[in-house]
Amino acid sequence: MKGLIDFEPATYYHVINHAVGSENLFRTEGNYHYFLEKYAHYSSSVFSTIAYCLMPNHIHFLVKTHSEITLEAHPKYKLNFHKLVMQEISNLLNAYAKAYNIKYNRKGALWIDYTKRFKVDSESYLTSVINYIHQNPVKHGFIGSAEDWHFSSFNAIVSEKSTLLKREDVVHWFGGKENYLKFHLKETGSLNCDWEY
Q1: Which residues, other chains included, contact 144 with Cβ-Cβ below 8 Å and sequence gap of 6+?
Q2: Phi and psi (nearest 5°) for 90?
Q3: Which residues pair with residue 18 across a beta bridge?
Q4: How far apart are CA 138 and CA 38, in angstroms?
Q5: What end-to-end distance do the CA atoms of the chain give, in Å?
Q6: Which spans in 21-143 are helix H?
Q7: For residue range 67-120, what is the model confidence (pLDDT) as tens digits?
């Protein structure tokens, strides 16, 4: 099935998941912040984050998996590389769903059964994915400009505040902050892709 490839070491991936049915994953600003806290806890041991966007009913992340040498030191490395990454993603989604269900007196699954992942294997693809992720709220009609969405990495890339994002990698990739901003203003998300559910 498309989007269900195995994770490999030191490789970029566009990772996506979606709420079950027409549910929302995030009802309040606090939900978004809580998810990002959990994300930082579970994800940092298996990959670095390049870009992200949290939408009310789905999530997008551009990540780069750690090298095999780095992951061999992981306490759960008895699993193979792919299973280790998927286990941490599963732990993240389950931890958030459990807290969400308690908070809203809800039962049952919150996320769909599988997390899609697409290998980013070219320079043009990498540029497109970063832009697509940041333009997602524009594409879905929530805002008019990527800078107006508070639950993505768009503004964090050009900020001076502390971040776990690989900010310098993105800025360097676009040839500086000014070029990064110009590109996002010019390319407003009219991309043809297979990344949607």
Answers
A1: 138
A2: -60, -40
A3: 58
A4: 26
A5: 12
A6: 29-43, 68-72, 81-103, 123-139
A7: 988 877 777 767 688 999 999 999 999 999 999 999 999 999 999 998 999 999
Q: What CA–CA distance (Å, rounded) separates 152 from 155?
A: 7
CA-nearest of 70, 65, 113 to 85 is 65
The answer to whether 187 and 138 have CB atoms below 8 angstroms apart is no
In angstroms, rounded to a whole number, what is the distance separating the alpha carbons of residues 157 and 153? Answer: 6
Task: Walk me through the domains of the chain, giving residue ranges and CATH numbers.
Answer: 12-186 (3.30.70.1290)
Region for residue 175 given its phi and psi (left: phi exceeds 0; alpha: psi -120 to 50; beta: otherwise): left
Rounded alpha-carbon distances, angstroms, from residue 156 to 21, 38, 53: 31, 18, 11
pTM: 0.90
Q: What are phi and psi of 80, to 5 degrees?
A: -75, 170
Q: Please choose, from the candidates 34, 58, 170, the residue with its C-alpha nearest in 3D space to the C-alpha of residue 116.
A: 58
Tokens of 183: 């590109």
